[in-house]
Amino acid sequence: MAMTAGGSSGGAMGDINVTPMIDILLVLLIIFMVIVPVTPKGLDALVPQPPKNPQQQQPQNDRTIVVQVVYRPGAAPAYKINETDVAHNDLLARLTEIYANRAERVMFVKGDDELNFAYIADVIDIAHAANVDHIGLMTPKIMAGQ
C-alpha cells in the first residue's frame, strides 16, 4: 500500500496500490478457466423409448426387460420381471435364461421410493452376473415421459 505525504490542501493523502489485488484476481480467473472444462458433463443414461406403433405388439422375446423391486413393510422386498413375480434366489437363473439368446442385453430396474438403495444395487449386481451389458434406472420423471 503506497502512501503519499502531503498534498495541495496541506493534509495527508492516501492512495491504495491496487496492483496486488488485480494480480490475485487474474490468477483466480486463470484457475477457474482451467478447472471449468475439466468438470464431468454427466452420465449417459439409457431411457426406454415408447414404441413407434403402439397398436403393434412386439414379439415376446424382444420385449424390454424391467425388473421391479417392490417395497413390503416389515419384510424383504418382492421382485418382478415384467410383472411376473420372481423369488430373489431365482432372479439370477431367470435373467440368465432370458438373456441367453438375446443380441441386445439391456435391462431396466425400477424400485419403490421407500426402498433402501442396497436392494437396487443387489439387483444390478445380479444382472451383471447374468451378463447384462446395459442397465438403466427408471425414475418417476422418466416414467412420466419428461
UniProtKB/TrEMBL annotation:
Tagged with keyword Membrane: yes
GO BP annotation list: protein transport
* Subcellular location(s) of the protein: Cell membrane
Q: How does it sit in the membrane?
A: Single-pass membrane protein; Single-pass type II membrane protein
Q: Which Pfam families match?
A: ExbD
* GO MF entries: transmembrane transporter activity
The principal location of this protein is membrane
Q: InterPro entries this protein is in? A: ExbD
Cellular component (GO) terms are: plasma membrane
Question: What Gene3D superfamilies is this protein classified in?
Answer: 3.30.420.270
Q: Which residues cross the membrane?
A: 20-39
Which keywords annotate this record? Cell membrane, Membrane, Protein transport, Transmembrane, Transmembrane helix, Transport
Q: Which PANTHER family match?
A: EXBD MEMBRANE COMPONENT OF PMF-DRIVEN MACROMOLECULE IMPORT SYSTEM, TOL-PAL SYSTEM PROTEIN TOLR
Task: Please state which protein family the record places this protein in.
Answer: Belongs to the ExbD/TolR family.
Q: What is this protein's record name? A: Biopolymer transporter ExbD
Give the classification, highest ranks: Bacteria, Pseudomonadati, Acidobacteriota, Terriglobia, Terriglobales
